[in-house]
Amino acid sequence: MSTPFAISADFVAAHNAGLEAATMEDYDALKRALQRRVVDAEAVVRQVMTFGVAIPTWGVGTGGTRFARFPGPGEPRNIFEKLDDCGVIHGLGRATPTVSPHIPWDKVADYAELRERAALHGLGFDAINSNTFQDQPGQRLSYKFGSLSHADKAVRDQAVAHNLECIEIGRRLGSRALTVWIADGSNFAGQSNLTTAFDRYLEAMAGIVAALPADWHVFLEHKLYEPAFYATVISDWGTSFAAAQELGPKARCLVDLGHHAPNVNIEQIVARLVRFKKLAGFHFNDSKYGDDDLDAGSVEPFRLFLVFNELIDAERRKADGFAPAYMIDQSHNVTDPIESLIQSAIELQRAYAQALLVDRTALEAAQEANDALGAHLELKRAFTTDVSPLLAVARLRSGGAIAPLAAYRASGYRACKTKERPAVAGTSAGIV
Ligand code: LRH
Ligand code: MN
Question: Distance from the CA of 198 to the center of ligand 2, in angstroms?
Fold first, then answer.
């Protein structure tokens, strides 16, 4: 069995060699421009090098919709090959040091072996995701009418047991959080009692919280609709916040950017959750209509920047209990998933770096003086700063590629994987 193809450090170094001079020229120009704004570019580079976002294991396979999935060539066929692809994303971009697993999609017999494979690529494990929104082969009771809020206690207990199993698997992988998104809800008015459903959810979640190891948190993920189309039990941040308050300090609220009605002010939701020490973290993606799971920063980059502006404001204020987990949650239906994830991580780093450029003293002065336009332009100045050279220098100094996407394409990785990984009919590495 020949060793699977991998992109070597020499290949990356050679690819960088042709780009370094121009990149440093652009960086020096940006550095001078930022100096005039009393911003130390070197300090921003160092900060950007600490930024990390987790890759969803389900994101490295081609995703689809209820209508169809069009698998791409060289798809990963199991979690080990998914980790190899996550290794490529981190090797080139140096911004994705962890992966977020999903159970049972990533179930294996030997979790130590999985941890080793991840470590081979310098990867660790972030929050583990449970799944009580699908029925598994051989499952005793169906989740058709819900899981943690189901009318039947036996189904609720089955769902709680699954979450406890996920905690056990996460403990072996080194995770420190469990993400619970449930699809529970109804399609008809009257189909379920809106209050009883929520109370059953709280009672079941209390059993899960009680089983959390001392240093763990549970992340509650709200979503406005889909697959339920009349009422969703955990439909918005208010409901998630109320549940997290009831469930105690280990329960926090995870914000999936695509889980809100169009035009909802997500950055304000972030500010509120930070204020009440209940921000768990994020599932970053972008959307135009519903839970489109499009690439982060590909539809509304200014909105993404405004979210990071609130996060940097909290970081600067040393907000109490502020330790958000950054994760991506996307479905790549028409692109090479590795390319989309490399680029999405860069767009997240970009929003983070731009938010670091905001002159918060000038912003506050304008806010206190009710200088609406002045304040707004402080944000716009940061958002319209092209930080690409700075991000490239951060990657270069972290041992990555100056131009990760170009390096990936030049490496021929996908073509090699297409030979190594003959497609297996009926298997899917994506969400559907
Ligand atoms: C639900 C969701 C959740 C995951 C799933 C793959 O829409 O965002 O976070 O479990 O996608
Ligand atoms: Mn999500």
Answer: 20
Output the six-digit token pair for 163: 């979450």
- Closest ligand by atom to 63 CA: 1
Taking the model in full, what pTM does it have?
0.97
Nearest to 354 by CA among 20, 25, 39, 27: 39
Each residue's pLDDT tens digit, 86-142: 999 999 999 999 999 999 999 999 999 999 999 999 999 999 999 999 999 999 999
**Tokens at residue 404, please?**
């990760």
Q: How far is the CA of 258 from the centre of ligand 2 (A)?
A: 8
Nearest CA among 102, 204, 222 for reference residue 160: 204
Q: How many CA atoms lie within 13 A of 50 on its CB side?
A: 6
Taking the centre of ligand 2 as the mean of its atom positions, its distance from the CA of residue 93, in whole angstroms, is 22
Strand partners, 219: 179, 252
Q: Whose CA is nearest to atom 9 of ligand 1?
A: 181
Alpha carbons 155 and 420: distance in angstroms, whole number? 42
Site to probe by mutation for ligand 1, drawn from 184, 283, 328, 331 as the one with most ligand atoms within 8 Å of Cβ, is 283
Over residues 283-312, the pLDDT tens digits come to 999 999 999 899 999 999 999 999 999 999
User: How far apart are alpha carbons 149 and 174 in whole angstroms?
Assistant: 29
